[in-house]
Design brief:
Number of domains: 2
Largest sheet: 8 strands, mixed
CATH topology of the largest domain: Spore Coat Polysaccharide Biosynthesis Protein SpsA, Chain A
CATH superfamily of the largest domain: Spore Coat Polysaccharide Biosynthesis Protein SpsA, Chain A
Order of helices and strands: EHEHEHEHEHEHHEHHHE
Helix content: 40-55%
Length: about 300
């Protein structure tokens, strides 16, 4: 069976060759499987696409695409999914943290009949801050996306061609791959793998990029809107009850002084809630406007390794 390996690349000129060559070695020892590579350069400022082009000239199963600007990891993955030909599609990183030696475990788990299998790390090689943000992401995904608690996700996954065909019909400018998988199938599996240290550089995800990625959840849930509605109803009820209490107390105790400081605090709290609600609504409206304006998921600048190119 042909396995299409999609790797989004950014600042990976020093690592992507080793990723490809190690992966090829792994597949040479896998009976019944062969592989192709779709390497998507997300407009790296270094020589990443030059290395990809060299790999495409060296190996006939390597194809590469470079994008016109930095669209983000998940947009680059969507670009790669449009070019795959295999019966299975495997997603992995370009930094050897999702190590090629773990591919057999995830493929063998897929043979049990799942639509998607995630490689779950026994022990994370990331630092405490990255581990905390990963935990926070997992918890909020369970709440907002309805992800089962016994299922974990990662950037190391395998999906069927049938699932891939459905995923690429999604045209929104801000995709979140794992959320798309979860909304399309419940045949999801996990397999434990080893998490390796990053061999070159550091993570390309800044805090701003992590927040932007997290906000992509809003494309797949209305839970934040329902939460704000609930908070609004609860606070309105509390305000009504408090108002009755103040009136009754004033009628009973005539010399009660009005509390300006407490009133100011209450106003600040409620104004904050109003602004929070407007901000959440604004995120949804912004997504609608950008989608209505046909903001592209990705734009290809150049290709290498494809027939005739």
């Amino acid at each position: 069976m042909l396995v299409s390996i999609v790797i989004p690349c950014y600042r990976s000129e020093k690592s992507i060759r080793k990723v490809v060559e190690l992966t090829r070695e792994v597949f040479e020892g896998l009976e019944g499987y062969e592989c192709e590579f779709i390497l998507v350069d997300d407009c790296s400022p270094d020589g990443t696409f030059s290395v990809i082009s060299e790999l495409a000239r060296t190996y006939d199963n390597v194809r590469g695409v470079t994008l016109m600007r930095n669209f983000g990891q998940h947009n680059a993955i969507m670009c790669g999914l449009h070019h795959v030909q295999g019966g299975l599609v495997l997603g992995m990183d370009d930094d050897l943290q999702t190590h090629p030696t773990q591919i057999p475990a995830i493929l063998h788990k897929m043979e049990e009949g799942y639509d998607v299998v995630y490689g779950v790390f026994k022990e994370s090689a990331n630092g405490p801050v990255k581990n905390f943000t990963s935990w926070l992401n997992r918890v909020t995904a369970q709440m907002m996306l309805g992800r089962p608690k016994d299922i974990q996700t990662s950037s190391f996954w395998v999906i069927t061609k049938q699932l891939k065909d459905q995923v690429i019909t999604f045209r929104n400018y801000n995709p979140y791959i794992q959320a798309l998988f979860g909304r399309m199938t419940n045949r999801v599996g996990n397999v434990e793998i080893e998490h390796h240290e990053r061999e070159q550089g550091s993570s390309n995800y800044s805090l701003a990029k992590l927040v932007k990625l997290w906000l992509a959840y809003f494309n797949y849930t209305v839970l934040p809107l329902r939460f704000i509605s609930t908070v609004g109803m609860v606070t309105a009820a509390l305000g009504f009850i408090a108002g009755i209490f103040v009136v009754v107390r004033k009628l009973i105790i005539q010399d009660v002084l009005l509390g300006w400081s407490s009133l100011t605090c209450i106003m600040l709290v409620f104004f904050g809630l109003v602004l929070l609600g407007l901000g959440i609504i604004g995120e949804y409206l912004g997504d609608l406007v950008l989608s209505a304006n046909s903001t592209p998921q990705f734009i290809e600048r150049d290709r290498t390794g494809f027939d005739g190119e």
